[in-house]
TrEMBL record:
Source species, domain of life: Bacteria
Record-level Gene Ontology MF annotations: ATP binding; ATP hydrolysis activity
Gene Ontology biological process terms in this record: quaternary ammonium group transport
Family matches, as Gene3D superfamilies: P-loop containing nucleotide triphosphate hydrolases
Protein name according to UniProt: ATP-binding cassette domain-containing protein
Swiss-Prot/TrEMBL keywords: ATP-binding, Nucleotide-binding, Transport
A Pfam family annotated for this UniProt entry: ABC_tran
All copies of domain ABC transporter, residue ranges: 11-242
PANTHER family: SPERMIDINE/PUTRESCINE IMPORT ATP-BINDING PROTEIN POTA, SPERMIDINE_PUTRESCINE IMPORT ATP-BINDING PROTEIN POTA
Length: 259
């Protein structure tokens, strides 16, 4: 039993279902995420990860069930409030090409009628380890990794209580992806964030998250700590996903043993 005055989870899905025509993209999902957790939502393409994530900021409205942000039903929260309270990092980076880096980072506050000062812009760029001189650059003058750092800075501009990331590093080369993943995890710890990261990459989930939630055909089929998944828990679907990086590690170990 929970304490009567325990704070509600930062994020909670209660029996959320969403259909697209004949397809049940999310099927009766219930999941609660406590303050400070870094949760990876893992599953094959089409398993419903993005749909579930998008119900939080109401980019997608559930057919049934509810989504609670710190105990409040998001259905009753205006989009401007949701934008302010939730940082969102998109899969396709999604910077506005005709706006400078500084303007991109400040878009959230600007939509709320505020201006992001030069000092705060500098602070956010430093947070994601970008040279503050990049504030004036246009997105097409940045590498993919730098652009996604700007995407993370933008998501943090409003000091969100919840950070949602949909395949945030998926489009990056492996070295950039690892470096940015570690950076985001360090920021999560330092800023005391609560984070949900969608990924199809089980290795990334195991290495970065405190908790790994596995989806299959719209349902949650495992919800474990990385160590438990590595110890073989979580069921067949989770274990099939864990087998991929494990087999790669074994093959690499064999290769280097032969060298
Ligand atoms: P994932 O992010 O895990 O790859 P999605 O949440 O994007 O999965 O999709 C789950 C299922 O819902 C898939 O079968 C997908 O084709 C379907 N789907 C998602 N969005 C739409 C949409 N806007 N219209 C129709 N079908 C959709
Ligand atoms: Mg997706």
């Amino acid at each position: 039993m929970s304490e009567p005055d325990a704070p509600p989870p930062v994020l909670e899905w209660r029996d959320v279902t969403r259909d697209f025509g004949e397809v049940r993209a999310v099927d009766a999902v219930s999941l609660a995420i406590a303050k400070g957790q870094y949760v990876a939502l893992v599953g094959a393409s089409g398993s419903g990860k993005s749909t579930l994530l998008k119900t939080v900021n109401r980019l997608i409205i559930p057919g049934e069930g509810e989504v609670l942000l710190a105990g409040e039903d998001v259905a009753g929260l205006p989009p401007a409030i949701l934008r302010r309270r939730i940082g969102y990092v998109f899969q396709q980076i999604g910077l506005f090409p005709h706006m400078s880096v500084a303007e991109n980072i400040g878009i959230g506050p600007r939509l709320s009628g505020e201006r992001l000062g030069a000092e705060r812009t500098r602070e956010l760029l430093e947070l994601v380890e970008l040279d503050p001189a990049m504030a004036k650059r246009m997105p097409d003058a940045l590498s993919g990794g730098q652009r996604q750092r700007v995407g993370v800075a933008r998501a943090l501009a409003n000091d969100p209580e919840l950070l949602l990331m949909d395949e945030p590093f998926g489009a990056l080369d492996p070295i950039t992806r690892d470096a940015l993943g570690e950076r985001v995890r360090a920021l999560h710890d330092r800023l005391g964030l609560t984070s949900v990261m969608v990924t199809h990459d089980m290795a990334e989930a195991l290495l970065l998250a405190d908790r790994v939630v596995v989806m299959d055909a719209g349902r949650i089929v495992a919800d474990e700590m990385p160590a438990a998944l590595l110890a073989g828990e979580g069921g067949d679907i989770a274990q099939a996903l864990v087998a991929v990086p494990r087999a790669q590690a074994r093959q690499l170990a064999e290769l280097s043993g032969r060298a």
